[in-house]
Amino acid sequence: xxxxxxxxxxxxxxxxxxxxxxxxxxxxxxxxxxxxxxxxxxxxxxxxxxxxxxxxxxxxxxxxxxxxxxxxxxxxxxxxxxxxxxxxxxxxxxxxxxxxxxxxxxxxxxxxxxxxxxxxxxxxxxxxxxxxxxxxxxxxxxxxxxxxxxxxxxxxxxxxxxxxxx
Length: 166
Hints:
GO terms for molecular function: acyltransferase activity, transferring groups other than amino-acyl groups. The protein has 3 helices and 8 strands. The protein is α+β, with helices and mostly antiparallel strands. A 3-stranded mixed β-sheet has the order 1-5-6. The protein has a 3-stranded antiparallel β-sheet with strand order 2-4-3, with no helix packed on it. The N terminus and C terminus are likely disordered.
């Protein structure tokens, strides 16, 4: 699946240079129940969109802290008990939206940037912060094409006393 990444160029230093290393679909590590689950009536009232969130973690000293393979394997394992997340939206014979638990997987983007956490400021909504969130075309008529979960993992430079350590 080709992901569409944000092309945000507002000018004036509000962008980051992002190097996308890999964009893959990660599937559960084991077979999962193949079933369809109804979306709740409450969820049907809301428009379909991805809820963007950004989490930052300090390195824990482990040599494999940001190893993409470690992240992929952990994601493969967690998708087994949380198998609906690895599915796709679908419509039943009456047109009602449901989750097709088909194990097609979630989007994982691995990237790095030469930006620092300090350059992200107070984490208020901004074009710079928005670049940390992957995007897909949500205007598609075929709702079964997009993953339910999009993850974008970055390695940011660490600073200490205003000098880059990366």
